[in-house]
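User: Could you write out the 3D structure of this protein bound to 2-succinylbenzoate? I've included everything you need below.
Assistant: Certainly. Input first, then the structure.
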Amino acid sequence: MRFFETSFGRIHERRFVLVRVDDSGSTGFGECVADDNPYYSAETTATAWHVIAGFIAPAVLGQVFAHPRDLFASLARIRGHHMAKAAVEMAAWDLFARQQGRPLAEILGGRPATVASGIASGVSIGIQDSLDELCERVDVERAAGYRRIKIKIKPGWDVEAVEAVRARSGAIPLMVDANAAYHLRDAGRLASLDRFELLMIEQPLDYDDLRDHAALQREIRTPICLDESVHSVRAAEDAIALGACRVINIKPGRVGGHTESIRLHDLAERHAVPVWHGGMLESGIGRAHNIHLSTLSNFTLPGDIAASRRYYAPDLIDPEIEVRPDGTIAVPSGPGIGVHVVPERIAAATEAQLELRATA
Ligand code: OSB
Ligand code: MG
């Protein structure tokens, strides 16, 4: 992949844990979104491997679940580790949907019209080496059809970056993501973004903060969207009660899977807080899960789910996820996540594997 840079660093490669669950001849896949480093969140590929192999798998193997929605709650004894839990839980949803012979979107409660028409897609553009390169990337993605552009910002790459994009591209749907790079004392700097009429500013302050975000929202006009801070449905309840955000980014890995994502989605909907689906540079497996989840009714804003080719060549699935010229992505229509996972590509990319079975 081409490098991707956020306020916490630049990455050139992506290594992640895949989960495959098998039951009576059916298979389900999940992808753990944890990275090798603990910079976006405390979890890493190594902690996910440790917690899945040592605790999550032993807790679920051989258990009978009437529905995958029961899985997350059954893991309550294991504190945190939402990305590890989500990888297993989402594999279970895929398995269940395949066993029912229905697309995952239907099982999750997606809006039929969206399942038919596809989801609106946006892109996240990392920090570039120059403003010219940034503007060129915006042009390329706009030309590909993406309906909303998000650019990563950090101190030293913020007002100038937004100004350059606005000067070159005009009134396009534009937002910024700071990945927790600012402090409340930077409120003046962040308020100077108000004049650019951004759709929102994502996670300007600390990764676990709500109170300062609420204070900041009182000082800026641009709506605040929370990502990192909404690590659970409870955190979202607190954020909404405090006025810490006006929009929420949903990433199932961050909250523990599809079940918690649906609860978060429904909570936001009850409070008239719009949501959109975030991305974690997933392969086609995680990406397909995200597309299905994005068909729920309160996903009213374009998300960060883009085409496979922006990240992987080749992707682990075939055919790959593509964006259409109108900026939408089709919802795969087969059973489960509805994409064909190519075993040879997984084998070629695999560093280690572990098979765990129920002890009957
Ligand atoms: O904050 O949304 C984020 C990527 C890795 C970690 C965190 C984030 C991101 C992105 C990219 O913004 C989203 C994507 O294109 O998958
Ligand atoms: Mg973000």
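Residues 40, 124, 177, 179, 227, 278-281, 304, 306 surround 2-succinylbenzoate (ligand 1) (CB under 6 Å).
User: Perfect, thank you.
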